[in-house]
Structure formats: C-alpha cells, structure tokens
Amino acid sequence: MDPTTRANRIIWETASLKHVREYQKLLDLAAAGSSLIDVERHLLHDILQQEPDVVHLQSGHGLEDVALVRAGARSVVGVDFSAVAADAAQRRATDIGVACRYVVSVVPDVPLADASADLVYTGKGALIWMQDLLAWGREVVRLLRPSGHLFIYEAHPAVPLWTWDRDQPRIRPDRSYFDRSHVNDTFPANGAVEWQWTLGQIVTTVVEAGMEVLHLGEYPEPFWRAEGVAASAWDGRLPNSFSLLARRS
Questions:
Q1: What string of DSSP letters covers 138-179?
Q2: Rounded distance, CA 57 to CA 120, Å?
Q3: Torsion angle of alpha carbons 20, 60, 119, 35, nearest 10°?
Q4: What digits encode the pLDDT tens for the residues 83-142?
Q5: What percentage of the chain reaches a pLDDT higher than 70?
C-alpha cells in the first residue's frame, strides 16, 4: 500500500467511528431500507427485478446495501478499506437479517473471485479515493459477469470547486477542475488526499475497460450536505452529482 493510501485509510478509520457512535440511528435508517434515492431506484429498477448478486465497492456505512436487498438484490458484498466501517455495517446487516456481508480491502485489489457480480454498485464519495482510475475500471470488469452492470451515483467532479458561501456560489481560488488531487478540508475526511477525475476521464475509463455506457445524468442536488450548511452552490444552478449506468460487453 502506498503512503498516501495508507494515510487516507487511517483518516477514514477515524472518521468511520461516527458509524459506531451513531449505531442505533444508522440501524434505524438501514432497517427502513430507504437509502437509495429516486434516481437510483429508477435506473436500477429493471436490474434489481432480476435478483442480482451485487458487489458494492467502497461501501462505507452500508445503508445502501440493505436498501438494495430490500429492492430485489439476492445478495450484497460490501468492500471497504475501513475495518471500523465494515464491522459496523456487518453488525447492522446481521441485526436486520439481510443477505449482506463485508470485506475489508483496498480497491482495486478486491479479494473476490472473477465474475462475482451481476451488478457493481459504487459512489457517494468513492471515486475520490481512486489513485488509478484505469485499474479501478479493470477491476470492475473483472468482478462483473458477462452482461453485468456498473452503476455509479457520485459527487460531480466539479464539486471541489464550489465554495459554501450562502449569498452566491463562488469558485475556490485554491482549486482547479483539472487538478490531480486536493486535500480535503471538511468533515468527514479532513486532511485526506482526494483524487480528482473529470467527467470525461470517468466515462472514457468505463468505455476503455470494456463497458458500454447506457446512461449518464447530471443533477444539481448534492448527495451529501454538511450539517448546518446552506451553501448557495446547492440551490439548483450548478452540477453537484451525477449517475452513470454501464454494461459489460
């Protein structure tokens, strides 16, 4: 493991203690099975009706995993490099009684067999941890069965540019859309190095890895809002999230 990934992992282990402190709150949210937003439910509806086996790369608190099972998935394997997050997610899944299990691993070196999944699901703060996006794309294809799907719902690559000013959105003077990386200066990953990928780079990686893009959408609503913050950048005029659905050839 390279030094940056090692340092990021330590930071994320600390941030993931929130999943333990707020265990009951997250358990209640998971039990409700409502952690997939409308866009996700719409785009994944037909796939989930086929009872897919799902691999969730960078699964974090795992709330979406329970929702995926409740929406039709046969099983979900969550993969995260935080043992704290994976352990808490496994405990919740066991308490609720759903077919989810968790593996502690750095992506893309996932210790799962080839063709493990009908659907690889990822996002909501996942691609920022990928230092090698092409290796990530190859790993997705390795995990997918023929005609399997990749689904991403993620922060828009332009999000690092937006300030959290209330009066009007501004571009941070210390950020560039084309930077290789930046240091996170907000919760939950304060101090972590986040890797930046343009939307063009993400789409091209998916195609070059051997997948066909079926859908690409951009949205003004962020997938996460910092508590107590009402940023003007979130008022509907700027891109804050995107979705991508692709199929393995």
A1: HHHHHHEEEEEEEEEEEE-TTGGGB---SSS--B-TT--TT-
A2: 7
A3: 70
A4: 999 999 999 999 999 999 999 999 999 999 999 999 999 999 999 999 999 999 999 999
A5: 99
Residue with tokens 């997610």: 89
pLDDT beyond 80 at 36: yes
Task: Sort residue 131 into left (φ over 0), alpha (ψ -120 to 50) or beta.
Answer: alpha
Q: Please give the structure tokens belonging to residue 211.
A: 């997948």
DSSP 3-state of 55: strand
Query: Domains in the chain, start-ordered, CATH in brackets?
Result: 3-248 (3.40.50.150)
- pLDDT tens column, 57-87: 999 999 999 999 999 999 999 999 999 999 9
Three-state secondary structure call for residue 102: strand
Interatomic CA distance for residues 30 and 36, integer angstroms: 10
Round to whole Å and give the CA distance between 241 and 193. 20
Residues contacting 110, CB < 8 A, separation 6+? 55, 57, 79, 103, 139, 143
Q: Residue 54 is inside which H or E element, if any?
A: strand 53-57
d(CA 150, CA 223): 19
pLDDT for the residue numbered 190: 80
Separation between Cα atoms, residue 93 and residue 123, nearest integer Å: 20
Contacts with 22 (C-beta within 8 Å, 6 or more apart), sequence order: none
Please state the rounded mean pLDDT for residues 188-210.
Answer: 94
Tallying the residues shown for the chain, one arrives at 249
